[in-house]
Amino acid sequence: MRTLDDLDVEGKRVLVRVDFNVPLDEDRRITDDARIRAALPTLRELRSRGAARLILLAHLGRPKGRDEKFSLRPAAERLGELLEVEVALAPDLDDVPEAEVVMVENVRFFEGETKNSSDLAQRYAALADVYVNDAFGSAHRAHASTEAVAHLLPSAAGRLLQREVETLNGILEDPRRPLVAVVGGAKVTDKIGVLEAFLDRADTVLIGGAMCFPFFKAQGHSVGSSLCEEEGIDPARAVMDNAKLELPSDLVAGREFKADTEVKELSEVDVPDGWMGLDVGEGTAERYTATIAAAGTVFWNGPMGAFELAPFAAGTKAVAEAMAATDATTVVGGGDSAAALAQFGLADRVDHLSTGGGASLELIEGKELPGVKALT
């Protein structure tokens, strides 16, 4: 993969694909600027190496056509504060201000972006002399701003994209042992490829979240009213006899999916009728944290339970705290795990927090990421 070390940017106009798909509140204020901050090393390096101009491309949400609710203006303003330079907002590709740093309006406002349009890519390429992709969170999508344009200009990966790919490949190819994967979330079918990849490479795979229930059902346990993906039962059955796989041994259940519901601690994994399993139990949390503490490398993707509800946050919090305390190399695959770390104030206590949940999982599965392949 070509990196900034392979790219001459002095005096050049640089087109940079960034991932500024940040959360906004009802007043369109950014509630978490982590993705903007993650792009700063690349942007600062390009400016320090004499780039004439930076023209930034990014998306926000999934607008259906041009919609001011999905404007990148808040991101442009926040980036300007962080870079300490005015960031001009270009409303259209035919109306790009002559400024040192320009943010083009949401690329998903443009016809053909998500269809990887070559015509749109040509319009992007006409803005610059070289192209840098630093949007790992979108690298698994073949879009005009992530894939097609990379073939039209001298192109390379930014520092964020480079670090993401090297870190994730590193834990698969040459990890410190033991390698432990902690995989949670709702659906087995969403993560069966990741489970299979880690069952081949890891020493231990710890399962949590609602995805444990297809395993339990395949074993003949009762799951009550728990979220249990029926389509996940056969894939779970196919891997559940692997000796590396560990499942919860106790649970915390609730009558309803809400914070003030009646709560029951279960010493086993059979869930009574009328109850739903919403977190791993204390015994499981202690076992999982001990495994993490003894690891050489830990990858975590997916919560252990409904951590957004206080009575069911303990399992996920235990894993988060174990990730923060261990001497192992710790990698978190974005998404809900990143949200949990932020909720518990531990986001800065892991070695690598991925900015791309979907992209990180596809890379671990062994899939080619179009945005990365275009830079090789």
How would you characterize the overall build of this protein?
- The structure is a single chain.
- The chain has 376 residues and is of the alpha/beta class.
- The chain folds into two domains: 4-162, Rossmann fold; 175-365, 3-Layer(aba) Sandwich (Rossmann fold), CATH 3.40.50.1260.
- It is built from twelve helices and 15 strands.
- The strands form three sheets. The chain has a six-stranded parallel sheet with strand order 3-4-2-1-5-6. It has a six-stranded parallel sheet with strand order 9-8-7-13-14-15, sandwiched between helices.
- The N and C termini lie close together (4 Å).
- The model has no long low-confidence stretch (mean pLDDT 95).
SSE map:
Layout: E1 13-17, H1 34-48, E2 53-57, H2 73-83, E3 87-90, E4 101-104, H3 118-125, E5 130-133, E6 155-157, H4 159-173, E7 179-183, H5 188-201, E8 204-207, H6 212-218, H7 233-239, E9 245-246, E10 251-254, E11 263-266, E12 276-280, H8 282-293, E13 297-301, H9 314-325, E14 329-332, H10 335-343, E15 352-353, H11 357-365, H12 370-373
Q: How much helicity do the residues have? A: 25-40%
Sequence of secondary-structure elements: EHEHEEHEEHEHEHHEEEEHEHEHEHH
| Mean pLDDT level | 95
CATH topology of the largest domain: Rossmann fold
Radius of gyration over C-alpha positions, nearest whole angstrom: 22 Å
- The total of helices stands at 12
Tally of domains: 2
Overall shape:
elongated
Poorly predicted ranges (pLDDT <50, ≥5 residues)? none
Task: Report strand order across the widest sheet.
Answer: 3-4-2-1-5-6
Span between N and C termini?
A: 4 Å
Binned strand content: 15-25%
CATH class of the largest domain: Alpha Beta
| Count of individual beta strands | 15
Question: How does CATH name the architecture of the largest domain?
Answer: 3-Layer(aba) Sandwich
- What characterizes the major β-sheet? 6 strands, parallel
Structural class by SSE content: alpha/beta
Say which CATH homologous superfamily of the largest domain is assigned. Phosphoglycerate kinase, N-terminal domain
